[in-house]
Structure formats: structure tokens, C-alpha cells
Amino acid sequence: MATSSKYPDPIGGGSFIIAYRAKEKTVLVVGGGAVAAGRVFNSLDSDMNVIVLSPKLNDELLYRYEKNQIVWIKDIFNEKHLDNVDMVLSTIDDPIESQRIVELCRERKIPVNAADINDLCDFWFMSIHRDGPLQIAVATNSKAPRLANRVRRHIASSLPVGVGTAIEKIGQLRYKIKSGDPGAENVGKRMTWMKQLCDYWPIEELSKINPDDINTLFESYIEQVDPKNVNISINRYFEKSLPEAEKKKDDDKLPLPESDKSKPFEDQETISIDKVSDDISNLSLNPSNDETSKISSNNSDQAYMTDVNCQSRKSSNIHKKGQMYLVGAGLGEPDLLTVRAYNLLQKADLVLADKLIPEAVLSLVTNAEIFIARKFPGVADMAQQELFTRGLEALNNGKLVVRLKQGDPFVYGRGGEEILFFESHGYKCEVIPGLSSAISGPGFNRIPLTHRGVADQVLIMSGNNRFGQLPDVPPYLTSRTLVFLMAVKKLDLIIEML
């Protein structure tokens, strides 16, 4: 028997929202005022044939009539005006006449909308943001149209620059691929390849694709080259972002910024990401050692501060020109952040954020520059180096830097590597833990990780190792709870292993 967890129950009470192809459909707009003008504009924007029925028109509608954008019937409503129309929009201030129009439309099965009379409407208008082919519509089921406008503005302000152009370019590439490799048998191949491209390339760079890039991408599709390995605009993207000195270095090296070369530190050489990974064994997380950790309590907030003991540097070399914080953003809900994390987001000069940090959390940053990590498959190490460079430059200029990571920085967050890096350059890093989904996910679903007499152990594992392979899952133990993170794509295989 199917379970409700697999097949969710419908909530009901919503509108059936679709993108309706209205091109060359005929719409009758009854009325000639400001509301009618808005309805006319939306109809013309959808390539509809517009007839305006009204004894007189306002200035905007008169302009559109003179430009031959609309047909004007200088009359009051009569049933004969419903002949050969596909949709009716009543915008008059007479509710009784509007109701008569609606009833006549219903008899003819013509969809109708009557402005400000919700009960008479077959459909409602939504608050729309448009950027080329991109249309975003916000509906409140006619309950709060003014609030819908506010929500729409909020969504539009958070969109990446160039998203409409990016969609246009992707459409051109999609058409070329579909034309060059037609056939129903190739649908899956086309969809999979395009999904990879749309998921992994930055929107800003998709908007910069030129005709030559489209040809190169098409050839890559034909040869079935993974989109994330097609180095066209993606290289321009990262080369532009990194300092000139960075471009001349090996991909796995991070040079010390020019402003730091005069400082009396021991390790002026470049730092390898692989070396940082190897040095994880040098981490010392002993809460009892005052040199490596301490508890800080300040009235309304508490934070567990972890000072990583990097063996390659003596504590006397730690300087305090800038301040570095590694902060866990938890589950992405602002009210689930620690108070300490919230306060730091308010005070920061620079926030280096993971690309999946929700907008609701980023909106808490008041004065700081926000830099989003550009970690995409195939270029993750380069993006990590870019974060290191940005962070070091800000620290060397005396800034307060927050490295904002999802969940908890030390639960599959590479937090240890980042601490090692910054401390190897002389900056002590304070860690602000975040709520990890490994613990809270089961909790929100009322699943205790430990339960007396049932489970006395918890094992947290990743669904992928660093090479994208399945983890080494231990034999099943009835008294142990297994928690897998980042495992959705390989869930079936993991279940088989267990």
C-alpha cells in the first residue's frame, strides 16, 4: 500500500497556474480607464489580438489605438460583442453590469475576469516580473494583490544579473542541439546534457555565450563531453575574478598577496590545497587546552572557539590585524542561527558565503560585501583558492571576515582545511558552530538518533568520497544509527549495500 510520505496529500485551495500560449487569441477588454490600460498591455505583451469596448479611452489607450495596436469599438457592452472572442476582461466600475457580462460569458463558455469582483472571476491576474523570455508571476489567489507586488519586487531584486539573456542563449543552444540531433530516442541524452550545463555554469557566464561558444558547445554535446569540462566562458569567468598574479601560478597554488610579502612570517611560499588537506592530521581540538580552545560567554551569546594548532607555525606568529571567523549557517533558517552568528553577520566587513546559503540568511548581512563561492564541479579547487585570496586581502587590510558555511563547518564542510590555511598565514580563526542537518534532520522528523535500549551509537557518513565513489559502509549493526549526508543520488545503491 502506498504511503503518504511517498505521495503527498494535496492541500487544495490553490489556483491552477500555467503559462498559457495566448498568441493571436482575441481578447475583449470592456472599459477604457487605467485598469483597462493595464489589462491591454499584458494582453499585447502576450501577442493577443485586443479589442477595447468603451465609449471613450484614456490617454494610454488612445495612444495604442493611434499606433494600431488595438481595435476600438466606441460603444457600450452588448451580447453581440462576445462573438468570436476567446477571453473577456471587464474593467468597468458597474458591478451589476459586470455580473451580467460574466453570466453571458459563462453561457458561451468564454473565460472571463471581472476587476475587483473575485467571486465572478474564472482567473486572476498575477504580479509579473519580466526579463526577456523570463517571466516570474506571484499569485495570492486575489487575497492580497498589493502584497504580491512587494513579493515580486523582492524576488526580482535577488535574481542574478543577466538571467534573461542567459535563458535566451540557452534557448538558442537547445534549438541547435535539438535540430542537430533530432529523434525521440535522443530526448534523454539531450535533457541530461542540458541539465548538466544549466546546473553547473554560472548564470552570469551563460549570459555571455556568443555564437562561437554555441558552436563549440554543440560540438561538445555531439561528442558527449561533460558540460562542466567544456572550458569556454567558464575559464574567462574565473580568470577575470582572480588577481593577475594568480593567473600565472599553477592551478593548485595560492600566492601570498603583494601586500603581505613584507610581513616577517616564516612561510612566504605558496600553499597547496593538497598540502592543506594532508595537514588535517595536525588539527588539535582539545577543549581542555587553553592554547587551543576556550569557551566565550557574553550575556546573550555563546560560542565554542576552536583554535587550530598548526604545527608549521608558532603561536607568536599569530597577528591580529584582521579578524577571521568560520561561521556555520545551520539549516538556512534565520531563526535557527546562533546569536553569535547573527551578531557577526551584522558586524562583518566581508562575508565569504557558500553558493547554497539561502537569501533569507544573506539578507541579515547589513554592511558587508558578500562574495559567493563559485564552486562548480571541475573548478572547485580554483574557486576555493579564490575564497582564500579574497579572505587574505581583507584580513591584511584589517577587515572582519566571516566565512559562512552551510550546516556546521566541521561536518563535511572542509572547515579544518580553511582554518589551517588562514592560520598558516598568521590569522587565528574563531569557529562558530552551526546546526547540522545530520542531527537536526532526524530531529525535525521525530527520529531520535539514540534511544535507550534501541540505539546507543551514531555514525555520520557522506554518500560520496572525494573521488565521487560510494563510501566504505560498515556492516549493519542494529544498535547503531546510520546518517548519510549528500547521498540522494546514490541512495538506492547504499540501500543495496546495507
From TrEMBL:
It catalyses: precorrin-2 + NAD(+) = sirohydrochlorin + NADH + 2 H(+). GO terms for biological process: methylation; siroheme biosynthetic process; sulfate assimilation. Residues 279-300 have a biased composition (Polar residues). Residues 160-223 form the Siroheme biosynthesis protein Met8 C-terminal domain. Signal peptide: none annotated. Keywords: Cobalamin biosynthesis, Lyase, Methyltransferase, Multifunctional enzyme, NAD, Oxidoreductase, Porphyrin biosynthesis, S-adenosyl-L-methionine, Transferase. Pathway: Porphyrin-containing compound metabolism; siroheme biosynthesis; sirohydrochlorin from precorrin-2: step 1/1. InterPro entries: 4pyrrol_Mease, 4pyrrol_Methylase_sf, 4pyrrole_Mease_sub1, 4pyrrole_Mease_sub2, CobA/CysG_C, Met1_fungi, Met8_C, NAD(P)-bd_dom_sf. Residues 131-157 form the Siroheme synthase central domain. NCBIfam families: cysG_Nterm. This is precorrin-2 dehydrogenase. It comes from Smittium culicis.
